[in-house]
Specification:
globular, 263 residues, Rossmann fold, alpha/beta, binds adenosine-5'-diphosphate, 6-stranded mixed β-sheet, 12 strands, binds magnesium ion
């Protein structure tokens, strides 16, 4: 086994350099650079179709990309081939990166036939091969943490959307990842249930978790982020600290986007 080298303080947990991604002829990511240092919360905002989900999916190698580098704790993804023939070269590296960048999806994606506890325990047991008793202890801990410790033995269909999403967050945490990637975690929820999920995300930010969050919720983006990236048609149109970016948008496009999303 390789020795784990200490991270120099300035090494980002996740760094994306000059990322390009096309679906066939359609180029949807056109040279994007994003980084998240340990403890950073980076939000990706922008209109539907601007490429936010694609960036997250490329970052944790659920999607191939044709150009650019993705570095996890300074370690570049090793590729074989080029252009549309470019794929990750090392399945072990893919697994390591993917399990360390735990994803939370808009639609929760819980297994309907498993209890909440089984859902949270599944990947640590089968993917990481961890000890069952330890995993159960840790699963119960994270379910408590997101406020649904009393729901261990029920099935997803018996929970509200907000509770299901909190279970999905507990499941992501139980992988003990280096960072969490959220793709519109509150979009499928009724407004009154959004808040309970936002509260959990805020708690995670406060405790110093590294997170990349795609969201349409500008208030959450402003409240939790250290850095906000505004995407337009696959490029970064504007980025910066949330207070500055939301108070003084520099580009016409961001001004237009913010006034269209204001309520
Ligand atoms: N599997 C796919 N096949 C073809 N085009 C796709 C696919 N997924 C996304 N796209 C296109 O890529 C662009 C970016 O999509 P996406 O990353 O989902 O945007 P966002 O998350 O910002 O709404 C859109 O034009 C979308 O239609
Ligand atoms: Mg999306």
């Amino acid at each position: 086994m390789k020795a784990v080298l200490p991270l120099p303080d300035d090494t980002p947990v996740l760094e994306i350099r000059d990322l390009h991604k096309a679906y066939g002829e359609l180029e949807v990511i056109k040279g994007v650079d994003i980084m998240a240092h340990r403890g950073d919360v980076v939000s990706l905002i922008g209109s539907s179709g601007s490429g936010k989900s694609t960036i997250l999916r490329c970052a944790n190698l659920l999607e191939d990309s044709q150009q650019g580098e993705i570095l996890f704790k300074g370690e570049p993804v090793s590729w074989k081939g080029t252009g549309h023939g470019r794929h990750p070269a090392d399945p072990k590296q893919v697994l390591r990166i993917r399990t360390n960048l735990s994803m939370v999806f808009q639609q929760f994606n819980l297994w309907a036939h498993m209890t909440i506890l089984q859902n949270v325990m599944e990947a640590p047991l089968t993917v990481l091969g961890r000890d069952r008793a330890e995993v159960e202890k840790s699963a119960r801990h994270y379910l408590d943490k997101v406020g649904i410790g009393d729901k261990c033995d029920v099935y997803p269909a018996q929970l509200s959307g907000g509770q299901q999403q909190r279970a999905a967050i507990a499941r992501a945490l139980c992988m003990e990842p280096e960072a969490l990637l959220f793709d519109e975690p509150t979009s499928a929820l009724d407004p009154e249930l959004e808040q309970e999920v936002i509260r959990v995300i805020k708690d995670l930010a406060t405790e110093g978790r590294t997170m990349m969050i795609v969201t349409h919720d500008m208030k959450m983006a402003q409240d939790v982020s250290d850095h906000v990236v505004f995407l337009h048609q696959g490029k970064i149109e504007e980025e910066g600290a949330p207070d500055e970016l939301f108070a003084n948008p520099k580009t016409e496009r961001l001004r237009g986007f913010l006034s269209a999303t204001a309520h």
